[in-house]
């Protein structure tokens, strides 16, 4: 375990604050040993740990289909994708640990239901086409959100995002390809694909968070160069990416009002149902309780692995001491 880094330099040190401001202004990276304002550290711990939890909880909706994938090839691809998400969670937990929180603390917050994770994973996956819609829409939205995070001012976070984004683009392509195959299939398969797109489209737009005028923390995160684009800017970019891809697929995006407004250079959409977003966020989504219970069970069932690993490490260390 590393010592908390927060006390290395007193937080009221004006010189340290000025050095921090300079690093931010010059687009340099803040590293774990640099002084940083307590609020910057707290914001990053919250954001990175929520992001890590999202990757880990996000394994469940697709994990649901590993044993029922339609072919060996699909099974192998899906397993690789779900394993990637586990890896993303691990990079991000490690990045958060450099800020002085322990992995145990973060796990405890998650399984006690005190931590947030992306609401999108609280929706069920009743059909195989959901694997396509998740890859195309959910991983697609994740890419739009995460590519700018590769330049986040906190070094360990930005560097973790570089690798994550490379893997996300594979996830998006495999989802697109699942939908494309279904759309070239029987009428029942096409209907299944369209139904999945209908269910995932709106929740994927909600992944960018509330509209800019209702997003109170965005300004500070932008000033700290953690966030580079506003929620609405990213949502617009995502829609612009989806529209031509939906055409290639032959699916309809379920918004009759969706159209490009040339004079304003933006996509017009129907009103997003933010009541649903807040309900799911508050823990009242269709799968919130199941997702958390599964995570809690996995943690408890894995206790013996953690104990065995700790015991093994203890024995190895004792052996090294003996030899020395
Ligand atoms: Fe991921
Ligand atoms: Fe992904």
Automatic annotation (TrEMBL):
Q: Any keyword Oxidoreductase? A: yes
Xref: SUPFAM superfamilies: Ferritin-like
Q: Which UniProt keywords apply?
A: Oxidoreductase
Q: Could you provide one GO biological process annotation from this protein's UniProt record?
A: phenylacetate catabolic process
GO molecular function term, any single one: phenylacetyl-CoA 1,2-epoxidase activity
GO cellular component terms attached to this protein's record: cytosol
Indicate yes or no for the key word Oxidoreductase.
yes
Entry-linked InterPro entries: Aromatic_CoA_ox/epox, Ferritin-like, Ferritin-like_SF, PaaA, PaaA_PaaC
Q: What is its EC number?
A: 1.14.13.149
Q: What is this protein called?
A: 1,2-phenylacetyl-CoA epoxidase subunit A
Q: Which organism is it from?
A: Microbacterium stercoris
